[in-house]
Amino acid sequence: MRYSEMTREELLNEMNSLEIKFKALKDKNLNLNMARGKPGKRQLDLVSGLLDVLVDPADCKLGNTDIRNYGETSGMPEAKKYFSEILGVKESECFIGGNASLQLMYMAICEAFTNGLLNSENPWFKLDKIKWLCPVPGYDRHFKITEKLGFEMINIPMLETGPDMDLVEELVKDESVKGMWNVPKFSNPQGIIYSDETVRRLAALKPAAKDFMLMWDNAYCVHEFDGDYVEFPDIIGLCKEYGNPNMAYEFASTSKVTFPGAGISVMAASEDNIKYLTKSFGVQIISFDKVNQIRHVRFLKDKANTLALMREHAKIMKPKFDTVIKYLEREIAPLGIGSWMIPKGGYFVSYNAMKNTAKRYMTMKEAMEYTGMGELTLLGILTDIDVYPVQPGGSGTRRFIDKEDIDEAFRILKDKERVERHTRSGRHPF
Hints:
Elements: H1 8-26, H2 41-46, E1 61-62, E2 65-66, H3 77-87, E3 94-97, H4 101-114, E4 131-136, H5 140-148, E5 152-159, E6 162-163, H6 165-171, E7 177-182, H7 196-203, E8 213-217, H8 235-241, E9 248-253, E10 265-268, H9 271-281, H10 290-300, H11 303-332, E11 338-340, E12 349-353, H12 358-364, E13 368-370, E14 376-378, E15 387-390, H13 403-425
Parallel strand pairs: 4-5, 4-7, 7-8, 8-9
Antiparallel strand pairs: 1-2, 3-10, 5-6, 9-10, 11-12, 12-15, 13-14
C-alpha cells in the first residue's frame, strides 16, 4: 500500500517496521567517519615513496645549509620555488609552513588581532567591533578561527559563480569588516569554481578597512579528477594590478597530494607582507620542518610531475564520485527531496536537503562503504543551513558485504525519513 493511502495508525505501524529494519542495519556495526576530506589508503600508498627520499646524512646538506639544524624561518628556497610554480607567484612571495595551511591562516589572523598587520592603524583587539565575511556553505574550520577570536561573522550566499559579489562589495564599505574567507577552486563543500569575473571583482575590492584580509585558501588548486588541469588566476598579482598589493593572503598545502599528517604548506602574499609576517612569526618559531620541505621537493620535483601524480589520484577518486552521484540520481532524484552539484575536482559532493530537515538528517547519519567498483564512503555531515556533504573518500569505516546492502540502506533511510517526517506532521507523505 502506498503511504499516501495509509491512515495515521497504519503509518505508525509502518514506522515501527522500518525501525526494526533500521536497527538491523545499524547492528552491522557500520561506523561514521567524521574525518571529511581524508585520503584513502590507496592514495597514501601511492605516495609512500616519500618515506625513502632522504636515506643518507649527505642528503641533508644543501650548499651551506644543513636542513637538520636551525635557520631559514620563512622556509627553504627550494620549497619556495616549488610552490611559486604551483601557485603562479614569485618565490619571494612565499612563506613555507608545516603540515597544515590552517595553522598559517590562524597565525596570520592572530597577528592582526594581537599586533596588527602591515597597514593596520591598531591591533584588532583594541577595536570596538570586528566583522568577517563568510561565504556559506563553507569550511567550518575557517569559521572556527574567526568565531574563536570574537568576530561578528556575516553570511555571504554562494552562487554558481562564487560568493554574491554585489553583497560583498556593499559590506566592505564598513570599516569594521576586516576580512573574508574564500575557497576559490572546488570550494568546500560544494565544489564551486569561482568565475573569472568573481575573482577580478574580489581583487578590485575597495574595502574601507586598510588592513582588510582577503583569505584565499586554494586547497584544491591541482585537484581535478574529471578532465584536464585548468590554470587558476593568480590572486596576488591581480590584487597588485587593481591597487591592492597587500590585501590577498593565499594558502595551499600538500595535504591531498602526499600525507595530510606530514605534508608542507605555504602562505603567499606580497613581498612586504611576507617580510612583516616572517619577522612576527619569528617570535614563536625558529623554522618549520626543513627536512620535510626538502623531502617533498625531491619527491614531487616540480609542477609537471605533481600534475602527473594528481592524475593517478584522479584514477582512484573519480570512480568514488561517480558512484556517489549514481546513487543520488537513482535513489534521491526521483523523490524531489534534495539537490546537489556535480563537481569536477576537490573532495566533496554537497547534498542540499529540504528546508527544516537538517536536524532530522543529523539523527539518521550513517557511514556506508561499498567495495566493488572502487571504495565508496558516504558520509553525512549536517550544518545549520541544511547542507549535507557526501564524501567519496576516506578510510577507517567498515564495508558492506555486497551491493544489495547499500541498496537496502538507501531504501530504509529514505523510507524511514519520509514516514517519520509526515507522521509527525499528521499529513500523508505524498
